[in-house]
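## retry 2 of 3
previous attempt timed out at serialization; input unchanged, resubmitting
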Amino acid sequence: MKIGEYLITKKIITKDDLERALKEQTETKKGRLGEILVREGKLQGHDLFSIVSEFIKETGEKPSIAREWITQEEIDRLEKSFHKHHG
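## retry succeeded, writing output
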Protein backbone atom coordinates (compact mmCIF):
# COMPACT_ATOMS: atom_id res chain seq x y z
CA MET A 1 0.00 0.00 0.00
CA LYS A 2 1.24 3.47 -0.86
CA ILE A 3 0.98 6.42 1.51
CA GLY A 4 -1.63 8.15 -0.66
CA GLU A 5 -3.84 5.04 -0.62
CA TYR A 6 -3.38 4.84 3.14
CA LEU A 7 -4.52 8.46 3.59
CA ILE A 8 -7.58 7.78 1.44
CA THR A 9 -8.39 4.59 3.39
CA LYS A 10 -8.11 6.51 6.68
CA LYS A 11 -10.35 9.25 5.19
CA ILE A 12 -7.66 11.86 5.77
CA ILE A 13 -7.80 12.95 2.12
CA THR A 14 -10.00 12.03 -0.84
CA LYS A 15 -8.94 10.35 -4.06
CA ASP A 16 -9.56 13.68 -5.83
CA ASP A 17 -7.24 15.45 -3.34
CA LEU A 18 -4.47 12.96 -4.12
CA GLU A 19 -5.02 13.15 -7.88
CA ARG A 20 -4.86 16.97 -7.80
CA ALA A 21 -1.64 16.89 -5.77
CA LEU A 22 -0.08 14.33 -8.12
CA LYS A 23 -1.06 16.46 -11.12
CA GLU A 24 0.45 19.58 -9.57
CA GLN A 25 3.63 17.72 -8.68
CA THR A 26 3.94 16.39 -12.23
CA GLU A 27 3.22 19.75 -13.86
CA THR A 28 5.47 21.86 -11.64
CA LYS A 29 8.21 19.25 -11.11
CA LYS A 30 8.62 20.47 -7.55
CA GLY A 31 7.20 19.91 -4.13
CA ARG A 32 6.52 16.79 -2.19
CA LEU A 33 3.00 15.42 -2.15
CA GLY A 34 2.74 16.12 1.55
CA GLU A 35 3.81 19.75 1.07
CA ILE A 36 1.31 20.21 -1.75
CA LEU A 37 -1.55 18.80 0.34
CA VAL A 38 -0.57 21.03 3.28
CA ARG A 39 -0.44 24.07 1.00
CA GLU A 40 -3.91 23.19 -0.32
CA GLY A 41 -5.21 22.87 3.25
CA LYS A 42 -5.95 19.14 2.95
CA LEU A 43 -3.45 18.23 5.69
CA GLN A 44 -1.99 20.10 8.63
CA GLY A 45 1.78 20.46 8.47
CA HIS A 46 2.25 19.36 12.06
CA ASP A 47 0.19 16.20 11.39
CA LEU A 48 2.07 15.05 8.29
CA PHE A 49 5.08 13.55 10.09
CA SER A 50 2.80 11.73 12.54
CA ILE A 51 0.64 10.35 9.73
CA VAL A 52 3.65 9.07 7.80
CA SER A 53 5.11 7.59 10.99
CA GLU A 54 1.82 5.80 11.70
CA PHE A 55 1.76 4.47 8.12
CA ILE A 56 5.27 3.03 8.51
CA LYS A 57 4.43 1.40 11.84
CA GLU A 58 1.22 -0.14 10.51
CA THR A 59 2.62 -1.40 7.21
CA GLY A 60 6.19 -2.26 8.16
CA GLU A 61 7.49 -0.21 5.22
CA LYS A 62 10.92 1.40 5.41
CA PRO A 63 10.97 5.15 6.12
CA SER A 64 12.56 5.85 2.73
CA ILE A 65 9.15 5.13 1.13
CA ALA A 66 8.11 8.59 2.36
CA ARG A 67 10.46 10.56 0.07
CA GLU A 68 7.55 11.98 -1.91
CA TRP A 69 5.83 13.10 1.28
CA ILE A 70 8.30 14.46 3.83
CA THR A 71 11.79 15.96 3.92
CA GLN A 72 14.99 13.93 4.12
CA GLU A 73 15.52 15.29 7.64
CA GLU A 74 12.16 13.86 8.70
CA ILE A 75 12.95 10.54 7.01
CA ASP A 76 16.22 10.42 8.97
CA ARG A 77 14.24 10.97 12.19
CA LEU A 78 11.90 8.12 11.26
CA GLU A 79 14.82 5.82 10.44
CA LYS A 80 16.46 6.51 13.81
CA SER A 81 13.18 5.79 15.56
CA PHE A 82 12.62 2.68 13.42
CA HIS A 83 16.10 1.31 14.20
CA LYS A 84 15.72 2.06 17.89
CA HIS A 85 12.50 0.02 18.05
CA HIS A 86 13.48 -2.74 15.62
CA GLY A 87 17.13 -3.31 16.43
